[in-house]
Amino acid sequence: MAARDYGQFDGITRAVELVGERWALLIVRDLLVGPRRYGELAAGLPRIPTNILATRLKELQAAGVIRRAPRSRIIIYELTDYGRELEPVVLALGNWGFKTLGDPRDEQILTADAMAITLRGAFRPEVAASLPATSYGARFSSAGLLISVDGTSLSVKRGDGPADLAFAAGPGIHRLISGELGAHQALATGVVELLDGDRALLGRFAETFHVAA
Amino acid sequence: MAARDYGQFDGITRAVELVGERWALLIVRDLLVGPRRYGELAAGLPRIPTNILATRLKELQAAGVIRRAPRSRIIIYELTDYGRELEPVVLALGNWGFKTLGDPRDEQILTADAMAITLRGAFRPEVAASLPATSYGARFSSAGLLISVDGTSLSVKRGDGPADLAFAAGPGIHRLISGELGAHQALATGVVELLDGDRALLGRFAETFHVAA
DNA sequence: CGGGATCCCTTAGGATACTG
DNA sequence: CAGTATCCTAAGGGATCCCG
Fold first, then answer.
1. Are the CB atoms for B76 and B69 separated by under 8 Å?
2. CA A18 → CA A1, A22, A28, A55, B158, distances in Å?
3. What are the beta bridge partners of residue A169?
4. Cβ contact B114–A15 (<8 Å)
5. pLDDT tens, A143-168?
């Protein structure tokens, strides 16, 4: 692979050689949420050509970032310890990019995995510490997320289930997290749709998860 | 630019759309050290085709990451405030990649700018706090670096000048920073060549700048 | 001489179809 | 379901040339 070779010897060059190819960091993003099967990755990255997904998975594996784990008959992809060390980098990079998200174009989607990482990056433990433990259920077109906040600890997982507040949202939810919209504005404009629970809890959600522009 | 469009709406996708293209993060890396002219960037990135450098500079400018600043007659490229916010991300990514740097291949070079960023990432303020203020002059094939440590503050600039310890080094210096080699081993094996000053200060250097594998 | 633009060729990536 | 195989286009690599 001479093409991906930058001819330099330092940490950043090495890093971009490992995870700098197109789509690679988005695969890492999704795997940070949890182990995924090939088809799940493909579903979360609808625009990735299947041959590119296959190529990237092999490259990331060769790089020691991910691992193929055969579970009974099916194959699961998961991050190695080294790959998981990318978490702070990915969260920081995500926050950086988040600040200049404009308005979503029609063809742009927000997947549950992307939202899970956004929430991890936007989590403010120092704010959550003084709030009651709360669980949220968030529905996206693709899948659901179970978010539970208890003191300074956060857990975001895929799935559905009972929660103190359940809501549905799309890409527009970034305006709630950036503070551009308040909680009741988000509900009024339909950016967030209340499914179940106390609507007042959406304010708590917005306090807990915030990225300043 | 449909090709660089991932069809998703979240922070990481946005970030890789802004700085995820080939060479882009290496340009940011060098500009984090200081403003640079076109030719300086090209010299620090010897393998980048000139048309790609020109394209990237335009893209990064359009993305609001860098800015063209005409200084009298010459043009200087520098990071915007938004671009400078990438510093912690770039340092963290560099440290991540640093951990799996193998041995340098013959054609791999270490530029002064890359080393400057490596040092910023490897700086341990909590260690430096209890050490005397020290200045180092480091020579690379490409250029020199003036490093000065005073308490928890670090400054790394390009240039030459008087320093408490002056040394010359190449890519192999990563083995000193990783701790694979001790200071006197680094001198004995020629990885670091003493130019001037007290050789014992190289041990202090290795304590001050360290990235664990 | 700095700051690019142009040319041609190679390779990676996108779209789609197909297979164990 | 988990990938290969194929074909085509667009981006990147390398050298050279241009312009103020």
1. yes
2. 12, 11, 11, 13, 28
3. A192
4. no
5. 999 999 999 999 999 999 999 999 99
3-state secondary structure of B193: strand
Tokens of B9: 């709406």
The distance (Å) linking the CA of B204 with the C1' of D14 is 44
Q: Confidence class of residue A213 from pLDDT cuts 50, 70 and 90? A: confident
Q: Which nucleotide has its C1' atom closest to residue B7's CA? A: C14
Partner A contacted by B142 (CB < 8 A): no
Which of B7, B101, B110 is opposite residue A47, by nearest beta carbon?
Answer: B7
Q: Please give the nucleotide, over all strands, whose C1' is closest to the CA of residue B39.
A: C2
Query: pLDDT band at A44, cuts 50/70/90?
Result: very high
Q: Which long-range contacts (CB under 8 A, 24 or more apart) does B61-65 make?
A: B63/B18, B63/B19, B64/A100, B65/B18, B65/B19, B65/B28
CB A141 within 7 Å, strand D = no
| Closest nucleotide C1' to the C-alpha of B23 | D12
pTM of the model: 0.95
Residue B129 CA: distances (Å) to CA of A138, B14, B80, B115, B176: 46, 38, 31, 22, 20
**How many Å from the CA of A122 to C1' of C11?**
39
CA dihedral B178→B206→B173→B162, nearest 10 degrees, is 160
Beta bridge mates, B43: none
